[in-house]
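QA checklist item 7 of 12: single-chain prediction sanity check.
[x] sequence parsed
[x] length recorded as 256
[x] structure emitted
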Amino acid sequence: MKPARCVVLLHAFPCDGRMWAAQADALSEAGWDLIIPDLPGFGASDVLEAEPSLDLVADVVLRELSVQRIEGAVLAGLSLGGYVAMAMMRKSPERFSALMLCDTKASADTAEARESRHRLAESVVEEPAECGRILRGSLLPVLLGATTFAERLAVVEEVGGWLDEARPQAVAWYQRAMAARPTSIPTLAAASIPALVLWGEEDTLSPEADQRAMLQALTNATSACIPGAGHLSAVERPEAVSRRMIEFLESAQLRS
């Protein structure tokens, strides 16, 4: 069984584990073990053959941790990764020693947001060859902050490349799964472990109001707002995000 100095990093949609590259290097250098799972449908893994549900994704990651005999790890997720992390906390809260939620939200989708996700899912299924173009037009403008578009063109191109690589089947599956997710506010309210709520100041997908709702629900949380970053803060301001994560990890009282 691995010790508590282990961090599980769950990636955003529609990226893969590469989005955590800078944090993986920084955390590793600070003495932490890292696990960065491929969520089903991303990286080398296949899309799940089941009705779309983030609970099923949570089950996949929990099984992977069981196979590796990992208990007491820190669980971290950005955007979609945060949704999966909260689903894992709903199922097995006793398995984790701390929680880091980045650019995500605990609320369920509004009716308007659900409709938008289903429209996107349908569009990439109807025109799979145009999936990258569709994602660049619909998601890229809201994944990154204004400062990144103005000053970090290499980051814009990198994230655009990830969108081009996304598989239409995975895009549609996860859009439907995210649309169906329940609220996680009760899950956070029941959590007693240390938590970090971190977000980009320019994040319009998960703005400050969503972060404040999570902070209000959690009983043992600290916050970090990253200036000059949007929804993919870990990619836009990697050094700042890595620093805040390490500061949190080193100050938190982690259970074994």
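[x] summary fact logged: The chain is about 50% helix and 15% strand.
[ ] second reviewer sign-off
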